[in-house]
Design a protein that fits this description.
Helices cover 36% and strands 24% of the residues. It contains eight helices and ten strands. Helix 3 runs parallel beside helix 5, helix 4 (117-130) runs antiparallel to helix 5 and helix 5 runs parallel beside helix 6 (177-192). The chain starts with a strand and ends with a helix. It binds adenosine-5'-triphosphate and magnesium ion (MG). Magnesium ion is lined by residues 44-45, 87, 169-170.
C-alpha cells in the first residue's frame, strides 16, 4: 500500500537556534495505525504540530498523498483530509457540544468546493449515533463535560470531517482505565473505516498492540523503528535499549 504521509529529513523547532526535530523521516500508510513512542520531551507533540502546519519545518519536506504540503496552514490541511486530536484540548469550552461539532462542518460547507448542507447534517447525526453520550449533552458547554466526554467530543469532531489521516496525541492521558479502553476502540473504529493514523502514546504496550509499525523517537531523532512483530518478546528490555535510557 502506498504511503499517505511522508516526512523527508525534517528539521523543526520553536527557536531559530534550537532544533527539536532533527533530520526526521517517517511514513504513515493509508488505513493503518502507525505508532510513535518516546520519552517526555522527545519531540512527539512537536512532530504532530509540524505535520498539522502549526510549526513550519526549517528544512526537509512533508508530502501527503504525493503532494508537497510543507508549510501549508492548518485550516488548509483539514480541507485536504488531515485532522489532529492534540494532547491538549482543542475544544471551545464556552461553546455548546453541538456548536463544537458544527464548526468544522461549517468550515467544510464554506470551502470551495463545499460540502452540501444535507451531507453535513447527516454527518452530525451519524456522529451522535457513534458517540451517543454526546446526544444528551448537545446544548451543554463543552467545558462542563467530564474528561472522558471531552475526549469523546474530540473524536466526534474528527469523525465529522472524515479525514484520511488522523494524528492522535496521547489520547488516554488522565482518563480512567475503562474510558481509556473506549478511546482505543474509537481509534480502531477510525482505522477500520480506512483512515491512516499516527498514534502517540505513553503506554508503549498499548501502542505495540495497536500499531502495525512503530517509530521510537529520542531527542528529536528516530532511533529505532520496526513492525509490531519486531517489538514482541521482551518488550520492556527492548524499548529501554532502543530509547537508550534506564527507566
Ligand atoms: N511552545 C514551545 N516553545 C518552546 N519549546 C517548546 C514548546 N513546546 C515544546 N517545547 C520543547 O520542545 C521539546 C519537545 O517537546 P514535545 O512537547 O514535543 O515533547 P513530547 O515528546 O510530546 O513530550 P511529552 O511526552 O511530555 O508529551 C521539549 O524540550 C519542550 O520543552
Ligand atoms: Mg507530547
Amino acid at each position: 500500500m502506498s504511503d499517505l504521509l511522508c516526512l523527508e529529513r525534517v528539521t523543526a523547532g520553536y527557536a531559530a537556534d534550537i532544533d527539536v526535530l532533527r533530520n526526521l523521516s517517517l511514513t504513515v500508510p493509508a488505513g493503518k495505525i502507525t505508532g510513535l513512542i518516546g520519552l517526555n520531551g522527545a519531540g512527539k507533540s512537536t512532530l504532530m504540530k509540524t505535520i498539522c502546519g502549526f510549526l513550519r519545518p526549517k528544512t526537509g519536506a512533508i508530502r501527503f498523498d504525493g503532494a508537497d504540503i510543507t508549510g501549508i496552514e492548518p485550516h488548509a490541511l483539514i480541507r485536504r483530509g488531515i485532522s489532529c486530536i492534540p494532547q491538549e484540548s482543542s475544544l471551545f469550552p464556552y461553546l455548546s457540544v453541538e456548536h463544537n461539532l458544527r464548526l468544522p462542518l461549517e468550515a467544510l460547507v464554506h470551502a470551495r468546493p463545499g460540502l452540501p448542507r444535507a451531507e453535513a447534517a447527516r454527518r452530525l447525526d451519524e456522529a451522535l449515533e457513534e458517540f451517543p453520550a454526546l446526544g444528551a449533552k448537545l446544548k451543554s458547554p463543552a467545558g462542563d463535560l467530564s474528561g472522558g466526554q471531552q475526549k469523546m467530543l474530540e473524536f466526534a469532531k474528527a469523525h465529522v470531517v472524515r479525514p484520511r489521516l488522523c494524528l492522535i496525541d496521547e489520547p488516554s492521558i488522565g482518563l480512567a482505565p475503562k474510558i481509556a479502553g473506549e478511546v482505543y476502540q474509537w481509534i480502531r473504529l477510525f482505522s477500520a473505516g480506512g483512515m491512516g493514523i499516527l498514534l502517540v502514546d505513553h503506554n508503549v504496550r498499548r501502542v505495540v498492540n495497536m500499531a502495525e509499525y512503530i517509530y521510537v523517537l529520542s531527542l528529536g531523532e528516530v532511533t529505532a523503528q520496526g513492525r509490531r512483530s519486531d517489538f514482541a518478546g521482551n518488550l520492556h528490555e527492548q524499548v529501554r535499549a532502543w530509547l537508550g535510557v534506564n527507566f
